[in-house]
Predict the structure.
Amino acid sequence: MTATPRCAIVPPYLLVRLARLDDPRFAAAAEAARRSLLRDVPLRELRAAAHPPPRTFRAGTARERGRIDRAVWDATGLERLPGRLLARSEGWPATADPAVNEAYDGLGETHSLFWTRFRRDSIDDRGMPLEASVHYGRKYDNAFWDGERMVFGDGDGQVFNRFTRSLTVIGHELTHGVTQHTANLAYEGQSGAVNESLSDVFGSLVEQHAAGQGTAEASWLIGEGLFTDQVQGLALRSMRAPGTAYNDDVLGKDPQPDSMAGYIDTEDDNGGVHLNSGIPNRAFYLVAEALGGNAWEAPGQIWYDTLTGGNLRRGVDFAGFARATQAAAATRFGAESREHTAVASAWHEVGLGQSLVAGAAAE
Amino acid sequence: MKVSVSRSGGIAGIRVTWEVQVDEQPDARSWRELLDALPWDETEESAPEPDRYVYRIRCAPHEVVLPEPQVAGPWKDLVDRVRAVNEGR
């Protein structure tokens, strides 16, 4: 028998209020409420309790744009979503669980990049609540976007640590949500690799923006710190030098190509979406390197305009995406501007060269 | 008779392959029963989901490619069993 009190009789809104108490005198009650939230309460009610309307909300008034609304769920080792426990909702104090806190903070940093730099109000630009589920599955070596939320495994402890450890991975998953709500690029072949690359680009920018790092200081690594000490490798991918992130006797060598000369034709991984993404990743890095300063400024703006501008076909290929970024650069900064030229040169260097493209892209 | 499971994709994009020589297993008969009962010809096309795994499962003359959400029931039993043999569990 367990000594944990069962609070099925307490309505969820009250549990949420209890769980939110930040007064040290009520710390035990708050913790107990947090733990019992969701044990016996129907999921629908708990979801509503996880995202209560703000106190100032009145029927008929517009919600305040840019207001963040997070919820982190604990899947408690099961493969059911969102999970059994509401571990932390907006405004709740930090918990004793680092995975919960990393997910919560990472949601905040990602929201901050998209809102403060690009005036995007959450994933759908309409204030969609940001959700994460942690402790998914047993020794689960992955993180993914399920169409509604980001989901994180704990890793097996031998090759992978928990997946919330890297802010780039959190930004990567949420960007899949942004892509889903904008260009909705098909997740296979070249459009899938562009989809992957956009997640790496904005995942990396979330980390750089949070750390205040310019292009020269940034690591340009995706998933730094995910590998355990037993693995010979720094990260999952390198945007600056694709193919160099790891070289391990068990995992093998990082297979990412850094230009079209190394393009990989494969049926695995939905047509190599995590492999060939190295090519557009490096193109973005080269734009940032050429322009210097902070990559979330001009380079990030050009890529954001491309993603959200409505000119990308769902099945766009690399060449079409390259043309679209050039058109976006010309539209925002002017034809033959420094930014426009940097974008054209970057694509040329990764083997997707063409004459300077200006105006609206055909893709 | 050999069964192989190759997992690709995931956010890491690292491919892992596990193989089992069925005839060398102490419980070869139960392996064969599991393999014979799998719905090899009943897999459905579905849209790929970001960062989920893709499984390619081979046992001549059969081969299927399954997205992670479809690896459930007997397919999950098979994958777990193949991994367990390879990981010495």
